[in-house]
Fold Amidinotransferase.
Amino acid sequence: MNKALLVSDAAYFRVDYEINPYMHTEVQPDNAAAVVEHLNIVVAHRAAGRRIEYVPSAPECPDMVFTANAAVVRGDRAVLGAPPPERKAEMPYFQDWLINHDFDVVDAPYAFSGQGDALACGDLLLAGYGQRTDRRMHAVLARELSYEVVPLQTVSPRWYDLDLAVAVVEPGRALAYCPEALDEPSRRRLRGLGMDLIEVSVEEASRFALNLISDGVTVTMTKGASRLAAALRTRGLRVVELDTTELAKGGGGVRCTALTLDNPLPSGW
Ligand code: ARG
């Protein structure tokens, strides 16, 4: 899994509004640099043997480069995201792409940040709530995608999506997380899973260190989180560190720019 990814591009990436604490309309990305940064991420995915699917960005959608929020996909089923009003215009593009590629697409009846708040880990779905995802979505995800949901509540808008606070490093074996980003019951739930847990500091996590993509062999992550990178290398993982300076102005990192298309279905589905 995490070997087939849907990406867009940064052609129209800019900060038109502030829907997370990292966005400031007076700090605009350098567009040419953002395009290169994004291309380098795509090149790194390809070098890691990942298949890339592409949906072109639209001029009226300044955040469309962050495809992770569009949906959660498992097998041939997709549950669409239900983003804040500022990002609603993106949804028809993603919906059309998924339908044209033969996915069964289900609408989200409540606020839902897509894969931003949904981290697949085998048959488990680490599912965020408390910021952009209504907790009632968890039952929808369990029913539509046949996941066992592990609810995790992030404690501040700084962790507006769970994929800034928790990362699946080796499915079923290892997770990385920032303890301060989760409430105590959620921390207990994570500890109860019986997987190795790598702790990440608030400092590295707020630089989007946890916003990584791992297929269990290669980890693609942002530059500038040397402690997490070292911990991952100690586990024998190949770590590729990439510049995300421009994307960070929109409040996103590496994982935000890719929607996983190959989460496997449960056996017997
Ligand atoms: N500016 C975007 C937003 O606030 C960033 C989304 C990043 N996505 C993510 N999966 N964390 O919606």
In short: Residues 31-47 form the longest helix (17 residues). The chain has a mean pLDDT of 97. Residues 125 and 179 are 18 Å apart (CA to CA). The domain at 4-260 is CATH 3.75.10.10 (L-arginine/glycine Amidinotransferase; Chain A).
